């Protein structure tokens, strides 16, 4: 019996129940070589313990890309809506691609993925040891994971083979920076944690960073912006002669810019304008060209929180003023300039005020008080203008595809 | 020596709490189930012994979207998507003693993760009960654990369709996942053997709908 078992060679995988099986095998119990080899050498190596970091991978299932049905559209998230879906905790089964296609009735292509979309599949690893030493970046780790999944998922063999398929299709999920990992996303053994132990950082809006030029007449404190230039004219639009633009640009897809005003008692007696404008070439996601115009004139779609306490929409060209809308604004009110991709290089712009408090990772209750009849053209940069000294745009954040 | 080993893993999880506002339509935020319960492993071994381990499901999360399913035209059935399933099993120790040989294993950091999101049709049994059957070929699990300090991972598919139900009246979700392990002992000639085992996870948990005022983890 003893010799019989010593010469045995185990195949196939019993998973974490192996120890129980090994206990059943006298003669092998004290022999480390008794552990079974994996049936297939895995491509993805999560590294040594602790495997507490995670990358988020977008790994499509082979052969699942096809024209969506109307029901499947309900069951999917447009790739252009990924950032908003992340912020609102809206994860679904299909990714929808509205790029030009030959589907009937303007329906998109849909693709099934190994994880929910747009969240992606959480892949736990020891980031310290694995990236960049083993995998140059998270994209490469996702490719390795893809190969393991397809090898394990019999029946998923794609045309051209697993390796070629994964090299071409696996990548990090939307808004995941391929050079980073999410620390603390998994337990030490490498299983994903859930809220509240870990909340996906992509659910949080980005704080806006300001480009403050001495000529702007502004000062930034974190993601807030204040006019420091003395007031020049309180009775006309010419007084809007201070303002700065943000670093972040919306290159494509749905998103929004959210803001409030400072909490000084006189804040509602000051004038603040924040909005979006087409960003002329050269313009990339974190580098708009210099903005030398602090006035209202170069802000195409904006919300004006005016010194009369009311909320207006101002659109250019022509300084067309709409409103006032709703109740006078207060220090606790939050507003959004919202962007919805029309899948043709343009976007619909709407304006809203949040109602009540808003929880990260959920859809906020909001009142959309005006939708522009003019379409916006991507890319879009964030621009501001103030009229009175000390007017402050408070805690400005952005949700966008990065 | 036995040529067949059966392994039973039975997991029991607590009951669920459903939203009081079932009729309220919501967006595609998922319904969440926080599984709890016990896990029982029973393994027959040589020497006519039985190894039995009972441990707890320490934590976990199941997400299905949309929270109240997609209606199917002309049918009372619904489509759900199981997009996440993770379970953490409390560590356990096992000791064996057979024919004078002793060994022990300390198994920790045991995690089970759904590796592939899956869409399924929940068949309406009545107005509040929906039966679940997910074809086994569509269900892929990824398990990680640490055995005597050595980290290990494995992918698995169930050996049977994944079954269960959603009971809106009693506010419960249950799932049964059965996987099989096969161990081949290649000793040459006619003595080659394949040993079979099964793991059965019975999962139940508390449903939290996205619009449910609750303190449950979100």
Describe, in short, the structure shown.
The complex is a heterodimer of chains A (402) and B (218). Chain A is α+β, with helices and mostly antiparallel strands and 402 residues long. Chain A has 7 helices and 24 strands.
How much strand of chain A?
25-35%
Broad structural category of chain A: alpha+beta
Oligomeric form: heterodimer
Q: What's the helical proportion of residues of chain B?
A: under 10%
What is the highest CATH level, the class of the largest domain in chain A? Mainly Beta
The average pLDDT value of chain A, as a whole number, equals 90
Rg over alpha carbons of chain B: 20 Å
Low-confidence region ranges of chain B? 1-27, 183-189, 191-195, 214-218
Molecular structure report:
The complex is a heterodimer of chains A (402) and B (218). Chain A has 402 residues and is an alpha+beta fold. Chain A folds into three domains: 2-34, no CATH class; 53-203, no CATH class; 206-399, SPRY domain (Jelly Rolls, Sandwich). Chain A is 12% helix and 30% strand. Chain A has seven helices and 24 strands. Chain A has helices at 2-6, 18-23, 70-74, 82-88, 127-130, 138-152, 162-169; strands at 10-11, 53-58, 66-67, 76-78, 92-97, 109-117, 121-125, 171-172, 206-207, 210-211, 218-221, 224-227, 245-250, 255-261, 272-278, 301-305, 311-315, 320-322, 335-341, 346-354, 366-371, 376-377, 380-386, 392-399. In chain A, the strands form four sheets. In chain A, strands 9, 11, 12, 14, 19, 20, 21, 22 and 24 form a nine-stranded antiparallel beta sheet that branches. Chain A has a seven-stranded antiparallel beta sheet with strand order 10-13-23-15-16-17-18, with no helix packed on it. In chain A, α6 (138-152) packs antiparallel against α7 (162-169). The longest helix of chain A is centred in the middle third of the chain and has 15 residues, at 138-152. Chain A starts with a helix and ends with a strand. Chain B has one domain (7-208). Chain B has strands at residues 7-12, 31-35, 37-45, 49-71, 78-89, 92-98, 101-114, 118-124, 129-134, 141-147, 150-156, 162-167, 172-185, 193-208. In chain B, strands 2-4-5-8-9-12-13-14 form an eight-stranded antiparallel barrel. The interface between A and B is large, with 73 and 81 residues.
């Amino acid at each position: 019996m003893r010799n019989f078992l010593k010469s045995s060679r185990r195949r196939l995988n019993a998973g974490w129940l192996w120890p129980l099986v090994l206990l059943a095998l006298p003669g092998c119990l004290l022999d480390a070589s008794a552990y079974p080899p994996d049936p297939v050498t895995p491509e993805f190596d999560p590294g040594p313990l602790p495997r507490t970091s995670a990358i988020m991978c977008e790994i499509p299932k082979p052969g699942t890309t096809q024209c969506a049905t109307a029901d499947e559209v309900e069951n999917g998230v447009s790739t252009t809506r990924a950032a908003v879906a992340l912020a609102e905790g809206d994860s679904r089964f299909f990714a929808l691609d509205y790029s030009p296609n030959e589907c009937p009735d303007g329906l998109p292509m849909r693709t099934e993925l190994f994880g929910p979309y747009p969240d992606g599949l959480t892949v736990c690893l020891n980031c310290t040891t694995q990236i960049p030493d083993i995998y140059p970046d998270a994209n490469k780790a996702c490719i390795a994971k893809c190969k393991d999944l397809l090898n394990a998922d019999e029946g998923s063999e794609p045309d051209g083979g697993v390796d070629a398929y994964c090299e071409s299709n696996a990548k990090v999920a939307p808004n995941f920076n391929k050079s980073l990992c999410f620390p603390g996303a998994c337990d030490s053994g490498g299983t994903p944690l859930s809220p509240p132990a870990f909340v996906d950082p992509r659910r949080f809006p980005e704080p806006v960073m300001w480009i403050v030029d001495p000529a702007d007449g502004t000062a930034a404190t974190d993601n807030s912006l204040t006019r420091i230039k003395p007031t020049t004219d309180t009775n006309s639009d010419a007084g809007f002669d201070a303002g700065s633009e943000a670093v972040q640009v919306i290159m494509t897809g749905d998103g929004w810019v959210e803001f409030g005003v400072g909490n000084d008692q006189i804040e509602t007696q000051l004038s603040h304008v924040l909005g979006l404008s087409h960003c002329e070439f050269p313009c990339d996601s974190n580098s708009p060209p210099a903005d030398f115009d602090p006035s209202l004139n170069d802000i195409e779609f904006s919300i004006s929180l005016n010194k009369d306490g009311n909320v207006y929409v101002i659109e250019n060209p022509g300084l067309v003023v709409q409103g006032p809308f709703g109740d006078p604004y207060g220090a606790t009110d939050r507003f959004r300039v919202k962007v919805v991709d029309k899948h043709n290089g343009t976007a619909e712009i709407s304006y809203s005020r949040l109602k009540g408090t808003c929880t990260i990772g959920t859809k906020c209750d909001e009142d959309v008080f005006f939708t522009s009849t003019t379409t916006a053209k991507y890319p879009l940069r964030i621009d501001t203008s103030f009229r009175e000294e000390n007017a402050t745009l408070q805690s400005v954040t952005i949700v966008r595809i990065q | 020596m036995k040529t067949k080993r059966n392994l039973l893993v039975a997991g029991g999880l607590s009951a669920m709490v459903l939203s009081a506002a079932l009729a309220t339509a919501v967006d595609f935020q998922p319904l969440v189930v926080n599984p709890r319960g016990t896990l029982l492993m029973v393994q027959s071994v040589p020497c006519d012994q039985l190894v039995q381990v009972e441990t707890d499901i320490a934590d976990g999360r199941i997400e299905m979207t949309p929270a109240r399913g997609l209606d199917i035209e002309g049918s009372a059935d619904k489509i759900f998507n199981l997009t996440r399933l993770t379970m953490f099993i409390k560590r356990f120790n096992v000791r064996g003693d057979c024919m004078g040989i002793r060994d022990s294993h300390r198994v920790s950091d045991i995690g089970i993760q759904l590796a592939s999101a899956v869409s399924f049709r929940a068949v309406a049994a009545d107005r509040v009960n929906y039966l679940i059957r997910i074809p086994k070929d569509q269900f892929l699990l990824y398990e990680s654990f640490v055995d005597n300090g050595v980290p290990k991972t494995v992918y698995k598919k169930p050996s049977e369709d994944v079954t269960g139900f959603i009971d809106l009246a009693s506010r419960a979700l249950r799932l049964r996942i059965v996987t099989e392990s096969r161990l081949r002992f290649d000793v040459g000639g006619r003595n080659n053997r394949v040993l079979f085992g099964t793991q059965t996870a019975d999962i139940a948990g508390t449903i939290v709908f996205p619009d449910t005022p609750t303190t449950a983890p979100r």
